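Researcher: Going back to the complex we discussed earlier. I've cleaned up the inputs and rechecked each line, so this should be the final set. Can you rerun the prediction on the complete assembly and write out the structure?
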Amino acid sequence: MAAMVLDGRALAREMRDDLSLRVAAYVAQHYHTPTLGVIHVYGDRSAERYVRSLQISCNRVGMNFKYYLLHHTATQRELESAIYTFSADPNVDGIIIQMPLPIKYDSAAAVGQLDHRKDIDGVHPINVGLLNQNKPSLVPNTPAGGMLILERYGIELAGRDAVVIGRSAIVGGPMSTMLLNAEATVEICHRATRNLADKVRRADVVVTAAGKIGLVTGDMLKPGATVIDFGINVRPDNTICGDVDYASAFEVAGAITPVPGGTGPVTTMVLLNNVLKAAIATHVDIDDDMAQC
Ligand code: ADP
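Model: Rerun complete. Updated structure for the full complex:
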């Protein structure tokens, strides 16, 4: 039986329309345009393309975009000073440090310099801790988008067995926490996991965030399982695919995200939504203070 396609593009369109309206209402009320600040140590062209696409997405929902581009010779101190500049700038509401940083930088120290109230990637230790305590504030966008897809398509999580393949700090790790917070029973698999196929076969919900083409195939799935594929891999012919072999998985799964058109478009909308959330958290407080003066 063919799977239900979990259409991320359709959900992203709905989110964009809703966000544009909420941004316009916010601007009219607070005379401030929510602004995303991106800090980028120049590395490769694909990262630059991603940053430009973020700028376009920001402008489409009525937000501003500020870009702090550092040369690859910049020191750790210069990087942290850029982070401090955006953190202290009242016009910047949400900040992204484009990851991964070149190896010479201490990423954890850089992230520690962020104002956690502007940490729209949810990577600051305070935000990571709040998610782990099931009191989420700003959370990583990619897994939050995956959870929204599950919610939107009415996929039950409480009491279900979930397998998450990948344990990165920005995708696999927080996705396992979010699934756990939603009362699923979660098994986390990674590079050193043995018998991956056996674990996947028992799962009602399979999440992949490993960056490996063909890691999960249809014959590994429990019939009717839900599959969320966060992989974004480039094939030799330059086309994009996920970690899951879509054709074979589609025949066995109950529901599946395509790549492209699944988790990716939703990620950007969650990110922009976090910018507005951060703006509301800071500027509404300021307005309240002014009202009391
Ligand atoms: P991302 O930031 O997109 O999550 P990373 O490269 O940081 O990607 O992390 C990849 C994750 O995938 C790691 O946790 C790694 O252990 C896991 N992984 C990579 N290859 C395999 C594999 N063959 N089987 C299971 N897990 C894998």
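Model: Worth noting: The mean pLDDT is 96.
Researcher: Good, that matches what I expected from the previous run.
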